[in-house]
Specification:
This protein is mainly α. The protein is 67% helix and 2% strand. The strands form 2 sheets. The chain has a two-stranded antiparallel sheet. A two-stranded antiparallel ribbon has the order 3-4. May be involved in modulation of pathogen defense and leaf cell death.
Amino acid sequence: MAAADEVAALQFTPTWIVAAVCSVLVLISLAAERGLHHLGKTLKKNNQSLYEALLKVKEELMLLGFISLLLTVFQVTIQRTCIPPRWTEYMLPCQRPGASHQPPGVAATGPRFTVAEILGGISRARVLSEGEAGAGAGLCQKEGKVPLLSEEALHQLHIFIFVLAVAHVFFSATTMLLGGAKIHKWKQWEEEIQKNHAAGIGPKKVLPVQQLSFIRERYKGFGKDSMALCWLHSFIKQFYGSVAKSDYNTMRLGFIMTHCRGNPNFDFHRYMMRALESDFKKIVSTSWSLWVSVVIFLLLNVNGWHAYFWMAFLPLVLLLAVGTKLEHVIAQLAYDVAARHTAIEGDLVVNPSDEHFWFGQPRIVLHLIHFILFQNAFQLSFFFWILMTYGFESCFMDHVGFMVPRLVLGVVIQLLCSYSTLPLYAIVTQMGSYYKKEIFNEHVQQGVIGWAEKAKKRSGLKEGHSTAESMHGGDDVA
């Protein structure tokens, strides 16, 4: 056994093997780095918002690299942290069949042959300190205890964290692409409006509000019963025709009349797309709160609780609530107009306001969409990770009656968020009291931001100078 360990050590490994493996790893890393570099240059030249989103992805890759480094460095420490065997009997994700025939603290994990093992035997040469880790496990065994985390479990946790982060970026990008494709179809509405405006074509006569298509489709009368009907209509509306042409025309005009009245030909669609691309930076990132939710969900994955089945409904419920609220904001704009006017001359103008959103904060909707996409990516990545690692018959998969609905819910959430909720968010959040900096082009944005920073510095210098003068004056008085 000792001879085999010596042969496996680096000092007894042929140099051509070490050089060949290092060359392959370096070439792959350089290719990936150069690819991201050229992609960044292209996006920076053509689309500043997506370039900043790419920077967020790079930050996530750096975080993953750091987590990987920590797992490798502290592997021996974890292996040498010994705990009593009875501690491993609580909150197991799988029930141990024939526990007497298994080492203490080892749960049933299903098939032992994984995709990683098939592709080159990676799992047997995956850590730099495998020998020391094994010695740590043997040390615990001599004391009648078990390691805090087994070598196999540590490796699988390592892979899962990587799969989760990659899946989140992938599903977020997919949502943005599908949602952006639908929003891009609205561009023909924008072009038609500007063409009609240039030709002087537009409604000029006085019309009762009930005859306007925007009011007719959204307004359901007054009273408590009508408000309940309005919420119900908003809930159903998100599943079909979430944004009609009359909705786009009305909200576009309301935005222009509120924020840029002097520019009736303002390209609202282009501004909306720039704002959405900017928000993509937030959607694709993973904050500390999201990682905390992952830890909580891993904690609740106890055999018999079916926690992941019930948790799969959380992003769906939140998504339906967000979609209903966004549709209700459009309906509320119609209610405000109907409550103030009996007839409208010319174009219908609505009044954007933060009061229509939860707690007067339109950004809350973005945070919820961010959380929904991350949780959905967590559910789907966990499913496919278990499928590839342990197989379809693993206890992690739970019963078919719990497994299939989770997978179906994940697909439904992805499609509904892409084709309904995200387009709704893109246009409805422009109905707040303030516009976003994307109303300016990139060069103007940089100029305004630079001017604001200089103004802050000058203000700080003036305050510091006045404070020094007052102190000096106080010394003179003293």
